[in-house]
Structure formats: C-alpha cells, structure tokens
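Newbie here. three chains, one complex. Structure please?
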Amino acid sequence: MTDVTLEAVRKSYGDVDAVEGVDLRVADGEFLVVVGPSGCGKSTTLRLIAGLETATAGTIRMGETDVTGVEPADRNVAMVFQNYALYPHMTARRNITFGTGSSTSFTDAEIEERVREAAEALDITDLLDRKPAALSGGERQRVALGRALVRDPDVFLLDEPLSNLDAKLRIKMRAELAKLHEEFGTTTVYVTHDQTEAMTLGDRVVVMDDGEIQQVAPPQELYDYPATQFVAEFIGDPAMNTLPVVVDRRDGRPVATHAAFSLPLPGTGDTVPEGPAVLGVRPEHLSVANGDGEPAGNPIEATVTVTEPLGDSLLIECRAGDDAFRVEAEPRLGLVSGDTVRVRYDPERLHLFAADTGEALYHSDTGRRRGAATPVDPDPA
Amino acid sequence: MSSVATLPDRLGEYTEQMVAETGGDTRDGLVERLSLHALALGAVLLLVLPVVVAAIVSTKPTGIVTSVADLVPGRSGAANYRRALVGLGFWRFMLNSFVMAAIIVVGKLLVAALAALAIVYYRLPYKNLVFLVVLFTLMLPVPVRFVPLYRLVVELGWNNSFLAITVPYLASATTVFILRQHFRSIPSSLVETAKLDGVGPLRFLVSVLVPMSRGIIVGVSVIMFVYAWNQYLWPLVIIDTEGQQVAQVGLSLLRGQASSGEIAWSMVMTGSILTLLPPLALLVAFRKPLLETFTLQQR
Amino acid sequence: MATREIFENRLQAGLLLFPTMVVSAVFLYYPAIRAVGLSFFQASFGRDDAFVALDNYARLFTSGTYLDSVFVSVLFTAVVVAGVMAFGLCVTFLIHEVELGKSAYLIAAIWPYALPPAVAGLVFLFLFHPTLGLVTSYIEALGVTVDWFTNGPQAFVVVALAAVWKQIGYNVIFMTAAMNNVPDSLTEAANLDGVGRFQRLMRVYVPVMSPTLVFLVVINTIYGFFGTFPMVDLMTKGGPAGATNILIYDLWRTAFQFYDFGFASAKSVVLFVVVGALMYVQFRLSDRYAYYGG
C-alpha cells in the first residue's frame, strides 16, 4: 500500500496533448476519484499510473520509487476495466487466479485462501465455478473486483467500472465499493464521468477537463467552493446557473449588475475586481418569493418558461432579460409557463467567475472569499 | 432506383393497397414459388448428380452404363473397394495423403499462430512491412516457382520424401491473415489485463488466444486440409516412386490402367469416391466453423 | 489509445516469425527469383547451365504451340470465369429466394468445394466418355457425335464444363454470404417499385455484392489458369492437338517431359506476368465499377 505522486506529467499523441501539466498526489489509503467529461484525459491519467501508457514527460512515483519507466506488471497495481475483461473460456475462479502466478509471489495455498476470502467479501462464492457467460453484469463486475483484490496490490485502479450496469445496480455496487474500501483500505484511483459517483465515493475528487486538472478537493469543497466555472457547472445536479453580469461599486460595495437585476455582493469590496464576470448560483439556493412580507434581499423578477415537477421539488426554468436560469422550488406551487415570479436567493451562496478564464473570483460564503483551492493539495483532509 | 428515404411512406401506401386488393394475403403466387423450387432443385441436381452416378458406378463390376435404367447400385461394391484399396494398393496413396495433409495442417497452424502472435502483439519496427512480405507470397503460386523449386528440393535430397510435400507449404499467408484478423477482434482490455499481470507470450498464446480461437482454428484447419489433400501438381512433379505417391496422383495411375484395359472403369470411380470422401466428410461435419471462417477471410 | 502491442522483446518476435520467414524465403521467394534468373539459361539434367540471354524468350514468340497455348488459356479462363460466376450467381439467387429448405439446398450447392479437381476431371471423363459415357448416349441421341478425344473444340468444352462444375461450390459460399448481407430494406424497396426478380438480382443485388464478386473474379481467374491442371492432365493431356493445352500444362510438359528447364522458367515468368497483369486490370476495373458501401 503506498501513495502515488504524479509530477508535471504530460502524455502527447503526436501534436495532441491528452494530458498536460498533471501534478497530483494520492495519499496512502485514499480513495481518489478522477471525474470529467469524455476526452478529458481521466482514463489516460489512470493508464499512465498503471503503466499501460508511457508518459511523454514528467515523473510518476509510488512511495519513494520512481516507476515512470517501469512495466505494469512490476508496479504492483491491479486494474478493473469498464467491460470487466474476463476471459470468456475460463471459470470465474480461473479468471481470478490466472495472472497471480505471473504477477505475485504467493504460494498456491496462499492464493486459494485469498480467493476464498475475496469471494466471501464480494459474495460470489457460489459463482466461482461458472463461466462469464453464465453471470450477470453485476456478478461479472464482482469477479473482476475479486481478481484485483486477490493480487493484494499497492494501488487499485478502476476505469469506469460501473458504467455498464443499470442504474439500480450501479447504486448498489457503489455502496459495496465503499464498503470494500473501508474493509481493505487500499489506495484507490477511480475514474468516472458521473459526478454523483464521484461525490459519493471519493475522499477527494479530481475534476479534469481537456487534459488538465481543474481542481482537487474533497466533495463538499468542490460543491461549495468550485475553483473554476467548469467545476461549478460540472459538479451538482441540477447544474449551477451561470449568468453574465458586470461588477461595479455602489457606495463602496460591489454589486453584480445584470440587465434584469442587480445583486449586492456580501463581503469587503476590495477583493472583487470590477468589470464583466459570470455570476454563479445553484438552483437549490434560489427560491420563489411567496409575497408575505419576508425580509427581502432584492428579489429577481423573472418569467416562468418550463416547469418540471420532480415530486419532492419543482424545477422551474425562468427567464430574466435575455438569460435563462433554473430554480429548485417547493413542489406544489401551481406555477405555469408564462407566470411571473419573484426569485429570492441565498446571499451566502453566490459565486463569481472571470468572464475570460473561468477562474473563480469570489465566493460569498464567509468561510472563503477568494478564488480557487490550490490544485495540488499536499495535506488531504 | 427510388430513394430508400421515402420507403416508410411508400411501404405504408403499398401495404394498404395490397390489403385492399388481395384481402390480406401478400405472399408470392403459388406457381411462382413452385417454379423457384423446380429451378433450384434442377440446379442442385446438376451439381450433385455426376458424383452420385460415380458413386453408383463404383459399386458395379464394370464401367458399362448405357442408360439411366442401368443406374442401380451394383453388387460389386464391397469387392471393388477392397480391390482398390488392397489389390491395387490405393490404401497406400490414401495413407500418404493423410499423413501429408495432417502434417501440413498442424505445421501451418503452429507456424502461422506464432507469426500472428508476433504481428499482433509485439511492438516491432517495420511490422507492416513484414506482414506485407508474408502476404505477397500469395502472388507466388506453385507454377511460378516450381522449376527452380524442383531443383532446390532435389539438391536437398528431399525428392520422394514427406519433407518435400510438406515443408514448402508451411508458410501460409492466408492462415496468418485470418488469425491476425481474428486476434484483432479480441477486446484490448483482455490483452491489457494480461499485460498488467505480466503474463508471458507463450502462456498468453496457449491459455488465452487458442481457447478463444477455437471456431476459427477448426475452420482454418478444414480449409487447409482440403487444400493439402487436393494438391496434384507438386506431388506429381516431386514424387516419382509409386509407393510414396499421394491419392490424387494415384488416380492418374488408375486412369492409365483403365484406359489400357487392365481394370474396369468402375474401379476408377471407386478410387475417385475414396479420394473424395475425407474432404467431403470434413466439410459436412464442420460446415459451420468453416463458413464463419470464410466470412472473416473476406475482410 | 488502447493497444494490443503488449510485448516488446524483439528477439522473441524474431523467433516467432522465423519459421514463416525462412520457409517463405527459401521455398517461395528464392525459387521465384531464381526462375527469372534461370530463364536466361539453357538448363537440363546432366549438363551445366549455359547462358543464352534472351533466347528463351525469343523462342516463345516463334513457338506456334506456345502462342496457341496462350490463346487457349485466355479463352479457357474467360469461359470458366464467366460460367462459374453466372451459374454460381443463379444458384445463389435461387437459394436466396426459396423459402423452404434453404440449408439443404445450400449444402448441396457448396459441397463441390471439397471435391478434388482430379476427381472432377475423372468423373466428367467417365460420364462423357465417347464410347462408355452415360451422358454421351443421350447427347448422341440428339444427333451430335461425341468424339472429343479427337475433336479439339469438343474437348475444350468438356474440360471447361468439368472446371466450371467443380468451382461453383466455392463461389456459392461467398456469394451467399454477400447476398445475405444485402439489407432487407433494399429488397423491400425493389418490391415496392414493382421490380421483377431478375431485375432485382442484376440491378440491386449485384452492385451491392460487387466487392465480393470482384474478389471471386480474381480467385476464379487464378483457378482457371492454375487450378485446372489436374483436369487437363487426366482428361486430355493437353490435346487433341493442343486444344486444351493451357499455359500451366504446357509449362509442366516443357519442364518435366522435355526437361527444358531454362525455357520452362521463361514460361513461368511470362505466366506470372500475364496473371499479375490480369489481376491488376481486374482491380482497376473494380475500382471504377464496384460499389463499396451502402
């Protein structure tokens, strides 16, 4: 079991940089999730750690050892693929033990014992003598996990292992993975495109886009203090609203002005630069004013365009000026398209992003006023 | 040809029209279907009858068949076959053919599997060039090279030996090609899993590739067996000792004997049927893997 | 980004490729190259090779037998290719259109693939035998005298028939696969347009199947030139008077009956060039006319 460090890692294919400037440290025993849209470089990063790809530049270390040029088989890692990669002509048991002779130094007896333990932990003891064709998707995934477990690797690498499962099974397997991590405590790097999986599983989450790391932080911090507009819009469902505004000063206090409204920004005025910016506020931090004299803070006037009843809430899409945004409101409001509403916001949950770079300029929460968390977090919580 | 894009609309119209006209029955007319069957049957009979006749004649004492009425299986079947095999020594030819074909099939499979393993799973500079060099041999069939090949083989002292009729066949461009295509259809995650485990190349070949290629291996083996079994020109050239000869050329001897009146023509048919049986049996038994392999080869 | 090239040891790769490369080099490339060299010599048993430059090639042009043989070969292959493709296509189409008993018909049509050419030759030799043949008696009932042991054109026809018959099986295998790959929507569209069966075959199926058909033309050409040797050897031995003396047979005779190795090598080289050129022409034509992709 070790920590994994990537320093200035770059992977290029000809002129294209799949991964660039990656600095990352995975702590010993941590469950780190790498998340991002297709093509963001998350799988490439994982494969670089595995040794299936060779870095064009930079170093990769496991513990104290530089493994940048080392063969995958010598790195003591185990990988689980999206399509399970089970040999169709071997039984589950044989699939699990097939590579152990080459990659580990356990005796046959030790391997058998490990297989038994892993099978119990994964609840697949009855399935060991079946071939993959006779197993369901979830069962196959557990066999693939068993194969990884039996290796007793220093690092687990999982490449979108739940993507091929149906929604319900995915949720169940998520819980099982979390349980396994608690039980075995192996350093794990987990890649997914699903931000819900990332948030629920990760000790920390790495958000990547276009080959670069956008932010590395624990899930709550990503939600509360996104370092870039990309992270803000990627994390959280429904996605954060973004509206173009201009920041200027009135009476010495910063105000975000939009064609249809203006919001005073809490906090000291000097940390927020003036000029065009992007205002971010999550739908769940907006609400519909119900008109009885509640202490107001500048409600926003907007017109309802679409309503989506979700049962426990009502997702309203509104228009203010030229821009649309969504509000997560109380479920039984009886609003229809065309209605005018007054939208209220939580002043502690506003964000500003630079219009050109997307970098976070301001978070209104009193905990943190200024921009992004640093990309490399040397002391994970 | 009308655009397929308007198909849904026209299909709808057509169906409505048909339903109105025929009261719901849209199948081809009975007469048309019967004539199709008649034609198909006729064609197939043309393809099958000659051999059926040959088989029947092979059971007769002489080769004299003057009309269709004579086409009743004769009584001499057992006697003829026994005579062909033992009396005329045809069993020798059959055995030689079997040994040759078996060696060629096994040998080619082995050699081609190793080559395909290297071509698909090794990182090698100029690999594509190597593959092309192997493929180009398809342009060099026996007739183009058999004169110098003859001299070479004689110089090696191999004439009249099994070496001469097996070794030159062991490099097979088509087999390498087929195996390569098949290997490339195996998901790369399986291959990468093996790499992560540090599985060695031979173990990978034996424990992963071969079990996953069973259908193809059977199909390719049938193709190679038929090819080897049917070889005529090269054995004719390189083998002149009757005892070492293969069945195909043995037929030529039978024919000679029939023309000179030494044996009846029915014996020639007997030999022919004997020579036909092994590849035919394989074709019938393994037609499914065989057909699968052919479709793979097309690409 | 995923790759199958998981091994890097070049020595191992070399060893794996070694048997194939060695056999290819020694028994395929070397003799082929040597044939070119040998064609410039006069060579036979018991004497040393004597360099004669282009004499052998000059002899080709003055040899009446050879030039006849070229003509016969080209005609023979053309007939065989046309016959096989036409009849094969018809059989394939019939099996495709029939609703019942497809697999039975299919096996019956494919089986000649397993048939040794020698057996095909012998069976036809027997059935059409001028005095003993079963089919002969029926043909003669139509007023035609069957004497192809002495009648050149007749011999040509009989051998061609045997060759076509044998090769249909192989063609049906590929044509069936190709025809089954024609999307059903095209058949339905044709039916909607009121297109008759034959038109549908020629206007819809054939173009869509053209890559396979081109492949088969090439294969059949090679078969016509080389694969028909056993039939000629067993049925007519090149006669009567060279009527079935196809190039490969003539070549064999020059080498292994007259032992004129240098001359035979020159003939091999020419044969290679002729077939190579034919294949090239076929590929180019196919590029222009074949219809790839939906």
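Moderator note: Residues 231-363 of chain A form a domain with the OB fold (Dihydrolipoamide Acetyltransferase, E2P) fold (CATH 2.40.50.140). Residues 41 and 357 of chain A are 20 Å apart (CA to CA). Thread marked as resolved.
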